[in-house]
User: Fold Sodium:proton antiporter NhaD from Corallincola platygyrae.
Amino acid sequence: MKRTFSHLFKPLLLVFACLVTFNAAAFEGHADQLEALNHPLALVALAIFIFAYVLVIFEEQLHLPKSKPMINAAGVLWVLAALVGAEMGMTHDDIEQAVTHNLAEYASLFLFLLVAMIYINALEERNIFEALKGYLVSRGFSYQKLFWVTSVIAFFLSPIADNLTTALIMGAVVMAVGKDSPQFIGLTCIAIVVAANAGGAFSPFGDITTLMVWQSGHATFFEFFELFLPSVANYLIPALIMSRFIPEGQPPALEDKVIVKPGGYRVCVLFLVTIVLAVTFENLLGLPPYLGMMTGLSLLFLMVYFARRRAPADSPDKEYNVFSKLAIPEWDTLLFFFGVMYCVGALGFLGYLTAISGVMYGEWGATNANIAAGAISSVIDNIPVMFAILTMEPEMSHFQWLLITFTAGVGGSLLSVGSAAGVALMGAARGHYTFMSHLKWTWAVALGYAGGIAVHFAVNA
Assistant:
């Protein structure tokens, strides 16, 4: 089901309408920011960003990788920002400093994600995920048990792998064993999406937004686990409701055994060691987490090197390359982050983020703003939402930073198009899991969203 124009862009248009009516003098910008909200070139920059994001939303229909419009918009926005800055008396050095302000943040995020993606691809190439799928498919579980097994695994796998990989693995299991029951597939896919997003919310590794909050220093590694109980509530409430509508019966058991390739389990161990190194580097040594991740990557390189040396001349492992599967989708994602960060940086330089922050966190209050931002992330990707908030740097308590981390992470579950997990499953379970089938149960997911927030207030306030 295609989304309507008003449904997709109403939040963006409302933000645009509010911004163009703001009086820039009412907000005190940062030292490296302008107060140019009503400048014609600044309004053109905002319109270009909205247009670029429209192209990102329709990525699948246009067959245009999402990184291309965002990188192009980033360049154009900074050209316009430089022209406005020069007109308002800024020197070339001032503008260059503003452009490179987000470079360190992007570089650290890039290196961290690059290592995580290489490890995930290595695990996939060694058939670790296929072996898990084969094990579940061959168990002969009932529909009810499969509903809970797949969603619970999604909840606990997502903090280690990303929600997209988790959703695709569990979705493949559901499609393999439940092809004779469309109702089972539809409901279980919703539960998997909710579980994958909820599981990622309490781990620095589970979602890009949690990683961004961790690297920004607003929460330490172990403080994210304070969100475990809210995440459980966010998953369990809709799962308990939907489980009552899972059909009875048992699908036929399938023989789908998959053999893990040599070294597969060693890659699992090395991935866990790499995560420990990232945490140790930050907590004990005060070093950035990405340095621990890169050190862990070197261990994978060494393992592959010695495995290739020992492999027979005619073995496929002789030519194994850990970069072989780090192809178009991953690079598109990494470059998309660059475009988002620099687009948001340009809008912040022009003063828009200061204005939005003044309204949301000054007038609405942190709690209302954070809950609203989570709901908005079901329509607008949570990455630009979170990065914009981090760039605003609103004065918030640790409790409120955990709240926005939670709401931005799980808010995407409200709609099937609100997260990478939902979009991926709509493609994998085409015809069974759709935008409308998810929308029918949005009320149950919303109860989980509200319940998770309530638990956060109860246990962490």
